[in-house]
Amino acid sequence: MTYNIHAGTGSDGRLDLERTAGVIRDAGAEVVGLQEVDVHWGERSGFEDQARRLAEELGMRVFFAPIYSLDPLEAGRPRREYGLAILSEHPILRAENHEITRLSTQEPNPTPKPAPGFPEAVVNVRGVKIHFYATHLDYRPDPAVRRRQVEDMLGIAGEDPGPKILVGDFNAEPHAPELAPLRERFEDAWALEGSGTGYTFPASSPTRRIDYLLVSRGVEVQSARVLDTLASDHLPVVADLAFEKGKPPAKPLPAHIRAAG
Question: Which domains does the chain carry?
């Protein structure tokens, strides 16, 4: 599943993280990539650790990957963080917050430079070691930063053997030129097994398909669907996938993974 949760605020303007958790639970998703996740970020989300809260609500493991990590507003408070998260019902063997090119929204007169916020989790799914990536690409009309982000992501994912899943809010429609290199390496689950428009944004009256679930060659897509919910300003995408079972992965090393439940 991929879901831009808009920090738990729905299209109705109401903050309700339990509603967000309910969407994920009802979908039956086993591994989820989330975008726009607040961790002690600000008043809009009650300074809550949304990554941990969702993991606790769902009984899932979690890896949070901040894009921004800022000093607290008051001494002694946790750092203010905003970014992406990966939730998993299955053991997370390892996880890393990779850097890709970004144009900061927190700096005056920013320039494109490497910054974190491209999480990878290696997940043991019933004996198959899956590389799961979540991303949130630049939103600006100029595709230059997105083009560099795609190059960066492919460079990182290209080093890993085995099945790969790349999900996220790409802020570009399917035939955008900057996404073309992704189409050479990954298959679009919706294009393979979805029906209808597949539009995901804006949730209240969607007109654009900008949220994706991509899989590497050899991963079987059995179904793909967009869920109808107003729990965010985006609609989530869910796919059922099948993998060829090979040798069992190494023993989990979860020391740096925050597990809940």
Answer: 2-259 (3.60.10.10)
Taking the chain (261 residues) in runs of 10, the rounded mean pLDDT of each run is: 98 97 98 98 97 98 98 94 98 98 95 98 95 98 98 91 94 98 96 96 98 96 98 98 68 41 34
Tokens of 249: 């992965």
Residue type, 257: I
Q: In terms of pTM, does the model score above 0.85?
A: yes
Locate 162 and state its tokens.
């085995």
